[in-house]
Write a structure and sequence with these properties.
globular, Rossmann fold, alpha/beta, three-stranded parallel beta sheet, 2 domains, 54% helix, four-stranded parallel beta sheet
């Protein structure tokens, strides 16, 4: 089994989901006492958040590159950023770190195609929805994207950082997100990508008003597929 390096702590609430779901998937495939080979570097999110607010993306690039390099130096054979927004830093990691990066957007695109979805509503931070690094990558893979208007994007973003990334999940926020999903459904979305790793904790996919792809689930599926490739090849031989 290959060893994955996870860049975690952004936020730790969703990093727990990654650790649990990766191990669960490996255990189901291999049985017995098998568990996943994971290296986790969990950052102090306050430092990352301060650079986000300051729009210091060069600083965040440097921070995540250093984290990814520590993981590779520690034995990780590939790395994965356990958050959507910080994939703004993916190009810096890919350029500077000599190990594959398993990209969350590619995982969502793969799952959308497998499930037959062609138009995804994207809900996440304001940067995820509006900056292009995320939606452009989906569009390049043949997935049409829809996002809320700018004012609603800012509202979604505020709930993420004032509540979700601090472990606060309220009925008011849940109802508002469902309302926004319904608006995007009316605009033509045939599914919604929960493109913040905490949104699935607020609105589990089975409770969404249209088919939902939880970015954690999609990313975990891609990570486990990569991790198990060597093991499955050995079994087939």
């Amino acid at each position: 089994m290959r060893r994955i390096g996870l860049l975690g702590g952004m936020s730790w609430h969703s990093s727990i989901e990654y650790y649990t779901k990766i191990n669960d998937a490996v255990a189901k495939q291999l049985g017995g006492h098998h568990s996943a080979r994971i290296l986790l570097d969990s950052t102090d999110f306050a430092d990352i958040r301060a650079m986000q607010v300051a729009e210091d993306w060069a600083g965040n690039d440097a921070s995540l590159v250093a984290t990814a390099q520590r993981l590779v130096d520690g034995g990780a054979e590939a790395v994965a950023i356990a958050t959507n927004l910080m994939h703004k830093c993916a190009p810096a990691i890919e350029e500077s770190v000599d190990a594959p990066l398993i990209h969350i957007v590619d995982a969502i695109a793969t799952m959308a195609k497998r499930q037959g979805y062609s138009t995804l509503a994207v809900l996440g931070t304001k940067w995820t929805m509006l900056d292009g690094f995320y939606t452009d990558r989906l569009e390049a893979q043949g997935i049409r994207t829809l996002v809320p208007d700018e004012a609603t994007c800012l509202e979604v973003d505020q709930i993420i950082f004032d509540e979700l990334t601090q472990g606060i999940f309220t009925e008011a926020a849940r109802a508002r997100y469902v309302e926004i999903m319904n608006d995007l459904k009316a605009r033509g979305a045939d599914a919604v990508a929960l493109s913040c790793t905490e949104i699935g904790l607020l609105v589990p996919p089975e409770t969404a008003p249209l088919p939902a792809i939880d970015s954690v689930d999609a990313h975990v599926a891609a990570i486990v597929e990569w991790m198990m490739a060597r093991e499955l090849a050995t079994v087939q031989i």
